Amino acid sequence: MSKKLEAFLSASEIKSFDLNHRKIIKHNIGQYDKKVIEGKEQFSNLELAKTRVAGIKHKSIENLEKYLVEFEANFIKRGGKVIWAQDAEEAIKESLQIMQKANAKIVVKTKSMVSEEIHLKEALEKNGIEGIETDLGEYIIQLRKEAPYHSVTPALHLSKEDVSKTFNEKKGTPLDLTAEQITDFVRQELRQKYSKAEVGVSGGNFLIADIGAIAVTENEGNGLMSMAFPKVHIAIVGIEKIIPSMADLDLFWPVLATYGTGQNVTVYNSIYTGPKQAEEADGPSEMYVILLDNGRSALLDQTEQRQALSCIGCGACSTVCPVYQTIGGHSYCTTYCGPIGSIITPHLKGMEEYKHLSFASTLCGKCTEVCPAKIDLHKLLLLNRRDSVQKGLSTKTENWIWHFWKRAMLKRTKMDQGGAKLKNFMLKQFFKKSWGERREIPQTAQKSFNQIWRERKGIK
Question: pTM here?
Fold first, then answer.
């Protein structure tokens, strides 16, 4: 058993029986569900909107190189600089060089899953640079020294009492602070950081090819301030975020808002086209975009699974997933959790270590149903499973079990051979450990349906 699988099973075992966690998740997701129903009402034809999103993303992914080169050319025209990073190590190295050149002591950072992917915060800390999360949810989990629990709602697993307790322990605030008071406290803290920071770091919801820009959508204004205050801005964005035209935002922004938070549109929607121009009053003097591959090309090379790169990062598939709701985001032990994370992580980080994620699914299809980009998520999970078997990553024991199961299932006489006594013995012998300590192994009926049918019909 790999260490990653062992960690996954151990964390899942604990979280599955944590009733308080289940209560908090149920409440928070329930609030999300109510808002999404309201958000969907803005579309006269929701299915058509989803089909168009899927079509645009398909075109973008199938012509990825063309649109990335177009983006680069247009971004450079306005004085921006583009850096292509093959992996996380290269992205960190380039980011640190820019920061060291700017003599950065404080870096303000907007919410970004890509920065979590490359472990930017840890790299800043090792190099003596203070990196501050400016999104409220991210700020909370930074204080707790945790990873995001969800791609859109990083503190989804916390109650108001948990948050109040965190600020009491880390910042010395009273335990009875309301949500509004905590927000005001964080606002005052962050304003000091904005004014002192030498560098701002962001991700990007979309890369816009035709104008060479980055589109960022958020609800708190922290992204805008991280761009406006520091003299240097670094945007680290995955190459799959490209879309052909600025006109596409007319569709993508409301769809992302609806499925991400249940809003018609998020509060702040910004388009960054490069460093401050001569006639502009605000903005950084230097702006860099780091285009991150980090395994995405490996996924792009998979003809069937590459559609996973069409993900727009709404997090809806995780929110509806019964596995995610039971074991929570941290149990996956990866940056990207839920169904989409279970699909892309084996390609980004290696099938051998992460193949188990594609098996951690009920295949109920709810993720596919809600995906606004119409990604066939549960089919892609099956394709990952197939690939792991074809690469010889399944154990000999597992292979033998499936070999005998297949032989039995292909012939009725073999299926009925030995009766219930032998079947129950085999189940107890080979599946007791994997079935779990808290569950009793099911007992095979004394007679199969086929045998009962033949008896009733008098068939020998």
Answer: 0.91
